[in-house]
């Protein structure tokens, strides 16, 4: 009777210890899963509820956190590479096509504004791809707040596009590049204020080098001055360019803060679609009020020296490349930070110069060569800073995992010792009763 009275408490205590060990293991698994920040940035994993889809199968890998983390990091790097390629191709191509447009006597500010946002229907294709690849319906998770913010920021982008076009049409290329070179410094300041971006030696060094690179680039293009530039047009173009740089430097960290509440990359594309639609509505209304459509028709038939067919091809290719540029920028901000997006865009100014040299035979003097070297140096230092930060983070995570494993082994040894002691106690009780 004494044996039966003492055995159930011992068994219950043993079961409680087993349950605590299982709960601790589950918590460690979930902690390992949540530590992998990149996994929340993948296109379809978090957005899928279908266990038979790709996303559902990957979500089920939570029971194997190491495999999940490795797969997530690989997909993250692929997605990051795709977005940077979109930004790279879009920025370089739009720059070359815009120059092609102005070389052949195109010069409408409204057309230049409209092409920057009119390519929003192209975003339907990736949205449809996400739908057939996962079980997520488009615009799932869109709250009225996110919708209103997307529309407001779309109008914000429309104003920025207009200011950029005005500055580009009024100012010389050198002055325009010089003023825009301050954009990255503005981005660093607004990122510190809005998203609490930490200032490190790597990002501060990169901002200084890229800004200096842009200044030298402007000085190397001082001979590019439009004819008939009056003082009134100069100041109008100057303040328009300053306004465009400030607005875009404000836009990047604001989007980073909003993206922190966005669950997946598919929502980023959907938000971009809404924003571009709003910007297009604003640009279309401005074109209708300012006679932009009539100007476009006249320009295609009477002004553009390559004829209407070449004109419309230039316009529509410009629409596509600008959409690639903006979608790549949005993806970079979502996957990394607003400062990284600004750094990547500024670094591409040097690539745009090389593109002009290769395609149009632009003069490549000493200042442009030094500017390109500074651009590569600044961008390389920033990438190296990110690499060292990720390396230190991985080492910390590995050390945490080792500590977790050691604590697990210690608990197992303690539990086995406890069980052995209980067995000895039970043997003593049985011997005593006998």
Automatic annotation (TrEMBL):
- Where is there biased composition of kind Basic and acidic residues? 403-425
Record's Pfam families? PUNUT
Q: What is this protein called?
A: Probable purine permease
Q: Where is this region: Disordered?
A: 392-434
- What is the membrane topology here? Multi-pass membrane protein
Q: InterPro entries this protein is in? A: EmrE-like, PUP_plant
Its localization reads: Membrane
Please classify the protein's predominant subcellular localization into one broad category: membrane
Q: Name one GO molecular function term.
A: purine nucleoside transmembrane transporter activity
Name the protein family: Belongs to the purine permeases (TC 2.A.7.14) family.
Q: Mind telling me which GO cellular component terms the entry cites?
A: membrane
Q: Does the keyword Lipoprotein apply?
A: no
> Which segments cross the bilayer?
76-98, 110-130, 142-166, 178-195, 202-222, 234-252, 273-293, 313-335, 342-361, 367-387
Q: Which UniProt keywords apply?
A: Membrane, Transmembrane, Transmembrane helix, Transport
Q: Which domain of life is it from?
A: Eukaryota
């Amino acid at each position: 009777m004494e044996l039966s009275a003492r055995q159930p408490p011992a068994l219950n205590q043993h079961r409680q210890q087993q349950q605590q060990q299982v709960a601790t293991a589950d918590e460690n698994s979930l902690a390992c899963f949540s530590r992998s920040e990149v996994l929340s940035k993948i296109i379809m994993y978090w957005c899928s509820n279908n266990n038979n889809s790709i996303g559902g199968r990957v979500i089920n890998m939570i029971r194997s956190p190491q495999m999940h983390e490795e797969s997530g990091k690989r997909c993250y790097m692929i997605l990051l590479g795709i977005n940077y390629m979109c930004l790279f191709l879009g920025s370089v191509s739009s720059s070359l096509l815009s120059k092609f447009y102005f070389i052949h006597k195109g010069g409408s500010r409204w057309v230049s504004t409209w092409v920057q946002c009119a390519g929003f229907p192209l975003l339907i294709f990736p949205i449809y791809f996400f739908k057939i690849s996962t079980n997520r319906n488009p615009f799932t998770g869109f709250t009225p707040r996110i919708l209103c913010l997307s529309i407001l920021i779309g109008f914000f982008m429309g104003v920025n596009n207009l200011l950029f076009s005005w500055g580009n049409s009024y100012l010389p290329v050198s002055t325009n590049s010089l003023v825009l070179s301050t954009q990255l410094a503005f981005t660093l300041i607004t990122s510190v204020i809005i998203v609490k971006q930490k200032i490190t030696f790597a990002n501060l060094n990169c901002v200084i080098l890229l800004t200096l690179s842009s200044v030298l680039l402007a000085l190397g293009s001082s001979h590019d001055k439009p004819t008939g530039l009056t003082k009134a047009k100069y100041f109008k173009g100057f303040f328009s360019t300053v306004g465009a740089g400030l607005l875009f430097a404000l836009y990047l960290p604001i989007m980073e803060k909003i993206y922190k509440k966005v669950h997946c990359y598919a929502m980023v594309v959907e938000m971009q679609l809404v924003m571009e639609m709003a910007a297009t509505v604003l640009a279309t209304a401005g074109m209708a009020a300012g006679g932009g459509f009539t100007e476009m028709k006249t320009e295609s038939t009477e002004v553009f020296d390559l004829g209407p067919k070449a004109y419309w091809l230039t316009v529509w290719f410009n629409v596509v490349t600008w959409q690639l540029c903006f979608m790549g920028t949005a993806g970079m901000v979502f996957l990394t930070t607003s400062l990284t997006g600004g750094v990547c865009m500024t670094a591409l100014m040097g690539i745009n110069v090389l593109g002009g040299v290769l395609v149009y035979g632009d003069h490549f003097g000493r200042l442009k060569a030094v500017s390109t070297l500074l651009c590569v140096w600044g961008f390389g230092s920033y990438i190296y800073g990110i690499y060292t930060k990720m390396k230190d983070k991985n080492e910390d995570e590995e050390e945490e995992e080792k500590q977790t494993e050691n604590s697990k082994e210690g608990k197992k040894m303690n539990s086995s010792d406890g069980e052995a002691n209980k067995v000895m106690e039970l043997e003593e009780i049985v011997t005593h009763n006998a």
